Amino acid sequence: MKNNKLVIFILTIGVFGILNTEMGFIGLIPQIAEHFNVSTSTAGWLVSIFAIGIAVSGPIMPLLLSKIERKKVMIAVLAIFIISNIVTVFTTHFSILLIARIIPAIFHPVYIALAFSVASDSVNYKEAPKAVAKVFIGVSAGMVVGVPIVNFLASQFNLYVALSFFAVVNLIVLILTIIFIPKMPAKATVTYVTQLRVLKRPLTWLSIIVSVLFNTAVFGVYSYLTDFLNMVTTAPGIAVSIILFLYGVSNILGNIIAGKLLTTMPQKAIFLLPFALIIVYVAMFEVGLYLIPMFIISILWGTFAGVSANITQYVITSVAPDAPDLSNGIFLSAVNSGTSIGTFFGGLFIASLGSKFVILIGVTACIINILFIFLRNRSLRHFETTS
Fold first, then answer.
1. 324-383 per-position pLDDT tens digit
2. To the nearest 10°, the Cα dihedral for 347, 342, 98, 63?
3. Stretch among 17-31, 79-93, 101-115, 262-276 having the lowest mean pLDDT
């Protein structure tokens, strides 16, 4: 592919815009709850409903559209996101806001899976993880850097300016795609039936569960970080934005670290990560009342969360290389199922026990995941022996 670096760069910005639309609402939950006169847990459904849409469409949509010319698919998905972004800016009804979140969520997996596929195809097999890692920077940036940006815009200007940011980013990517991305014929893919056979493997299902639990542990807490900082830490608006930004930058650092870990000691990294997250959550529970410790915690937590982002993709795609479209779709479905589950139970803990106890969903998910990681590692050894 000519201009490979430019294509990867645009894809990285593209996934930033797509993920920013999904996760940026985390930084706006308090403002949206106040603006639409709903509870914090109800506003949290704007994150959950998007995740549910991705979870449902993830294994299906990338497969269904995999035989269509890639540039056309990218343009169509970006256009859908821009229209939905504009609706969120101008609607005055919470129900319409929910609908405007569901529609782009259905097409979200198409663009992300396509970005991973193009990045992987642009290099040889051994270098594929590094190419995918470059795109993952955009994914992580969209997940976490976009949050402090929109939170800052909402606190310094208003909610409308923050919501408009999503549309502007996606519009820029659409223009870059139309001008600079060459036509990309659909790749000759493995048949649907052949790819679906990977679902017969116990290892595949154990990997899916591990991926779900990692995202439950991270985003079950992170989805309500703004609320935690407001209600528990009582941090001023500018401090909230700084903490969210530190988390985001550290997340990208975690992506880089994960790339090295997954090429040298993948199974150890996967097993040790839940313990690292538990330590951070216990510290957050104990000293989350104080602002200075939260700055430090956000850096550590963000780094581990960045490692987690890469691991959640690795644990699934590494055990299903013979089903590239399906495995990327399943990965997106799994992590967003984790986000949905985590946000739901995190909201329950907040509603019943208070904002501080949202930490419990993170710790609980990590403890359960330790067991499933052990089972996955054992199944992986058996799979490698018999393959």
1. 777 878 888 888 789 889 988 999 999 999 999 999 999 999 999 999 999 999 998 887
2. -170
3. 17-31
Tell me the mean pLDDT in the region 172-177: 95
Say what the pTM is. 0.78
CB 251 within 8 A of CB 302: yes
DSSP letter at 92?
-
Of 3.10.560.10, 1.10.10.10, 1.20.1250.20, 3.20.20.80, the CATH number of 4-386 is 1.20.1250.20
DSSP 3-state of 60: coil
Asked whether residue 1 carries a pLDDT value surpassing 80, the answer given is no
Question: Running DSSP on this structure, what letter comes out for residue 184?
Answer: -
Of the pLDDT bands very low, low, confident and very high (cuts 50, 70, 90), residue 193 is confident
Helix runs in the chain, H state only:
4-23, 29-35, 40-43, 45-57, 61-64, 70-90, 94-121, 128-140, 146-156, 159-180, 192-196, 202-222, 225-231, 237-264, 266-287, 291-317, 324-353, 359-386
Q: Rounded to a whole number, what is the largest CA-CA distance in the chain?
A: 60
